[in-house]
Amino acid sequence: MPDTHQAGLIDQLRAHHPELTAIRRDIHAHPEMGLEEVRTAALVAAKLREWGIEVTEGVGGTGVVGTIRGTLPGQRAIGLRADMDALAIHEATGAPHASVNAGTMHACGHDGHTAMLLGAARHLAATRDFSGTVQLIFQPAEEGRGGARRMLADGLFDRFPVDAVYGMHNVPGLPVGQFAIRTGPYLAASSKWTATFRGSGGHGGASPHLAADLSVVQAHYVLALQTIVGRDVPPLETAVISVGHIAGGSAEAINVMPSELALSGTARCFTPEVQAVIDRRMAELAHGLAALHGASATFSISWGTTPLVNHPEQTVVAASAAKTLVGEAAVNTNATPITGGEDFAFMLDAKPGAFIFIGNGTGPDGVAHGLHTPKYDFNDEVIPLGAAWWVRVVEQELSLGG
Q: Are 47 and 148 in a shared domain?
């Protein structure tokens, strides 16, 4: 059963629900891409200052850090992190607060993450009945532009020391009032790769025998990529290799065999060892298949995230905080790993911590529109619960004598 004290905490946070919803919808209506979150960061900083919180702006570019010191004696410190950036997607929600920036939308709920942490910040600043320090980390550029690494390179944990750091993300389809977490590898390392094949090109009708047919090279390459997952990756490990883009030739000259053809996509896995296998074999197959057909190849791969690995002690804290709010039955502590990527992983490489998922339920139409889709919208009903979870983590980590 939920803790009755914590039910009161949620009620306290609900008193600010209208204001937090307005903030969330304002951020949603004015989405900004990674490292361009000038308006969003300014709004966050202004709210933190309004509530009497010490603010540092420009961390890692457009990042904001708020610092709250408790009134009880203690030296421990923890970090609470929310992301702020949007995606290059045309919104199709039809909501009154829909994006006014064409081609950009909050399709992953970072507007909601920011609002939930702001809700916790307001409560913590007003009460300060904890021991030690809370660092509120509002991170830019989670969506592939390296925001976590930029903040770390800017001395995040040197300038704002913490003993542990926590993150949270919403999940469409997981009912409101439920949480999911697991110890160990939880989200995957995520990469972008490109293989480019080059040959002489030629006339596809009159003289195909005189050209290196790059369409055949790429066809063999696409099929061969799955042999990496099936034969090079150990059977009990997980890996994904997908092709998302193929470009070559011209629709206006379909009788011309292209002299250059490029493929791009993503790869995912949960361990550095499998990352190394993917790097090596994707390059070997590109060069080998090109040579087999009289062509040449270049291959590049970059890993935007490392595997996100939850630390055991902090996973217990995160799960316990959720259980006090919604009851043990509503917290899945053995959630299935997800091959999505999340750059909070870099913060977990630097400090002990944990990452939890909170249910976002379904949309007004009763459908759970997925993350990164044009009809997705964050569910404002979740804001008080998410804010309460942040507060409860602080209470558990920074109790007197903790």
A: yes
Instruction: Calculate what percentage of the chain has a pLDDT beyond 70.
Output: 98
pLDDT, residue 399, reads 86
CA-CA distances (angstroms) from residue 369 to 169, 361, 362?
A: 15, 9, 7
What is the predicted pLDDT for the residue at 211?
87
3-state SS of 210-228 is HCCCHHHHHHHHHHHHHHH
* Confidence (pLDDT) at 402: 47
Q: Quick one: tokens of 241? A: 């290799």
What is the structure's pLDDT at 13? 95
Where do the DSSP E strands lie in 102-238? 131-139, 164-172, 179-180, 184-187, 189-198, 202-203
Residue pair 304/144 in contact by the 8 Å Cβ criterion: yes
pLDDT in tens, 179-212: 999 999 999 999 999 999 999 998 888 898 988 9
* Residue 350: inside a domain: yes
In the structure encoding, which two tokens stand for residue 89, read together?
């997607």
| Listed residues 305, 325, 354: the one ending a domain | 305
Kindly give, in sequence order, each residue whose CB lies less than 8 Å from that of residue 161, ignoring residues fewer than 6 positions away. 77
CA distance 137 to 60: 11
CA–CA dist 98, 8 (Å, integer): 33
> In terms of residue numbers, what domain contains 257?
189-305
Residue 383 lies in a domain: yes
Question: Residue 23 burial by CB count (10 A; 0-12/13-18/19+): exposed, middle or buried?
Answer: buried
Round to whole Å and give the CA distance between 165 and 79: 4
C-alpha triplet 146, 149, 151: angle, nearest 5°: 105
pLDDT tens digits for range 126-167: 999 999 999 999 999 999 999 999 999 999 999 999 999 999
Residues 180 and 171 sit within 8 Å (Cβ to Cβ): yes
Q: In this structure, are 36 and 160 located in the same domain?
A: yes
Check pLDDT > 70 for residue 401. Answer: no
DSSP-assigned states of every residue in 56-72: EEEETTTEEEEEEE-SE
Alpha-carbon 197 to chain mean position: 32
Q: For residue 110, give the CATH number of its domain.
A: 3.40.630.10
Same domain for 59 and 175?
Answer: yes
Strand partners, 245: 264
Pairing of strands 260-269, 189-198: antiparallel
